């Protein structure tokens, strides 16, 4: 039981790190720009498909991953300049409808270019092994690398936001966007920077997860819902909150699916416990969100109003 718990704990941390890479950009866009972007999940999907193509072109997953970063940055920049910039002053309903339409357009384009069949990326040979944790438990090296890279990315993002002038403007914009504009900051340029950087983080997450999961046109939909749950739990506009919320969601989702049926066996018959556990496990994340919002309506690190 201890080995299973440690294994699922690491899986939950790894899942949480990937959610953070997606939610970090989304919380900045939502918190600072007050823009509801339902197309953020398809950028994650595009990053996964791009790493498939770049890996095939270069013969190296590492090179493919490096190429995904500027490619998704440019993709996000193009979306912001051509589409999203025209929607900033529109009501949230218009933003939801427009970005939902964009989701369908990009998904269809992906199916035309890559096809509807699931694709996969071969695991890098140097990272394809596993290391011992607690005998006889072993854990894949690549998943540990995902955790390490995600933590380094979170640290770098924290340093940028708390130690640089751009970060100061981001924090100020999250607090009072109108005042920042009145002080002479180019809000349009700041929005473009935020959106392009958020798109790069989402594409990076998709590229990192490609060797672990299959790459398919619907992979961005479920993760977008969880990303919104993360930023609501952590507090809209707070990157620190996004990190804490992502880890909480990742751990609750992973541990709940593994140990929910086991816990329910203490109260129900094994067959009923298994069925109830499968039904309740997907609900645990939303129950967690409801509890946190009942206690802290602004989220864990959201600004109190």
UniProtKB/TrEMBL annotation:
The chain crosses the membrane at residues 12-31, 38-57, 63-84, 96-121, 141-161, 190-213, 225-255, 276-295. Pfam families: BPD_transp_2. InterPro entries: ABC_transp_permease, BCAA_transport_permease. CDD domains: TM_PBP1_LivH_like (cd06582). It comes from the Bacteria. It is a multi-pass membrane protein. Keywords: Amino-acid transport, Cell membrane, Membrane, Transmembrane, Transmembrane helix, Transport. Belongs to the binding-protein-dependent transport system permease family. LivHM subfamily. This is Branched-chain amino acid ABC transporter permease. The lineage of its organism: Bacteria, Pseudomonadati, Pseudomonadota, Alphaproteobacteria, Rhodobacterales.
